[in-house]
TrEMBL record:
Residues 37-246 form the Bacterial bifunctional deaminase-reductase C-terminal domain. Keywords: NADP, Oxidoreductase. Pathway: Cofactor biosynthesis; riboflavin biosynthesis. One of its GO terms (molecular function) is 5-amino-6-(5-phosphoribosylamino)uracil reductase activity. It comes from Ornatilinea apprima. This is Pyrimidine reductase. Pfam families: RibD_C. It comes from the Bacteria. GO terms for biological process: riboflavin biosynthetic process. The keyword Oxidoreductase applies. The keyword ATP-binding does not apply.
């Protein structure tokens, strides 16, 4: 992790430490400036745009092991560390129950002991709360999620199974209706705001990114592009859903080249601000 990366944008170009790179973006300040939650998402993609390939056991899809790497994982953890609330899905909990998923923020991993300290220094609990988006409400809630008074908040659609709602609320937290046939990103984030969450990180998949974009509530997209081509079917990209009514514009915020990633093949670490979301001028050139 000691090898330097190159900042390509904003100019002037400079060499930067990987460790602490995304912590330096200081995401927690944004909601205090804008008086609304700051919502951000993150993906790692192959050069041909793939974020997932089928599991070896044929059940669902997962991040390709050929592009997953420790240097990107470090930055993923730095993004999760800064959040009050993590957005995930019922699929994530089902995968966890099946042994195909893990805790999103790994503060108990010795490699990330500094991130645990970072949260303590900022008067944050060891783990952020977790928000689950699910229309069916068909998912287990692992006990590990609810220990230490951690909250699980569920967002679903109209006319949910009331018995299932009672079961979830007796076990974990609160269920909120935030849409008719699908969850509305706008209604969901407004409810998160009313619950007191300021910094919200989507660690979920392309369908949830779609609803955040459609609702106009995503503020920043982080993207790692790896220098490997995968091919194959099915094709899964960062956004999946209906065609947007109008293309969604983004502005490049930061661009870094990691020449040491993927055994020297390299990768780009990029971040984009949504064009309709103002960012304080003081943060346009993170150091």
């Amino acid at each position: 992790m000691d090898e330097l990366i190159t900042q390509l944008y904003p100019l002037p170009s400079s060499e930067r430490q990987l460790k602490g790179l995304y912590l330096s973006h200081n995401l927690r300040q944004y909601s205090h400036v804008s008086k609304k939650p700051f919502v951000y998402a993150n993906f790692i993609v192959s050069l041909d745009g793939r974020i997932a390939v089928p599991h070896e056991d044929g059940n669902g899809q997962a991040v390709p092991t050929s592009i997953a790497n420790e240097r990107d994982w470090r930055l993923f953890q730095e993004l999760a560390t800064q959040s009050d609330l993590l957005i995930s899905s019922g699929r994530y909990l089902r995968d966890w129950a099946a042994g195909r998923a893990q805790e999103i923020l790994r503060v108990d991993d010795p490699r990330f002991s500094d991130l645990k300290g970072w949260r303590l220094d900022h008067n944050l609990p060891p783990q952020p709360d977790i928000a689950i988006i699910s229309s069916s409400l068909e998912f287990p809630i692992p006990e590990v999620l609810t220990k230490s008074r951690r909250k699980v908040i569920v967002f679903t659609t109209n006319n949910p199974d009331l018995e299932r709602v009672k079961e979830i609320e007796a076990t974990a937290g609160k269920v909120f209706v935030a849409g008719d046939s699908s969850v509305s990103g706008e209604k969901m984030v407004q409810q998160m705001h009313e619950l007191g969450y300021h910094t919200i990180y989507s660690a979920a998949g392309p369908k949830i990114l779609h609803l955040l974009l459609k609702g106009g509530v995503l503020d920043r997209l982080y993207l790692t592009q790896t220098n490997r081509l995968l091919g194959g079917q099915p094709f899964s990209s960062i956004v999946e859903g209906d065609l947007f009514d109008a293309p969604i514009g983004v502005n490049l915020h930061t661009l870094y080249f990691d020449s040491h990633g993927l055994d020297g093949l390299g990768q780009l670490f990029m971040s984009y601000n949504l064009a309709n979301q103002p960012i304080p001028k003081s943060e346009m050139n993170p150091q």
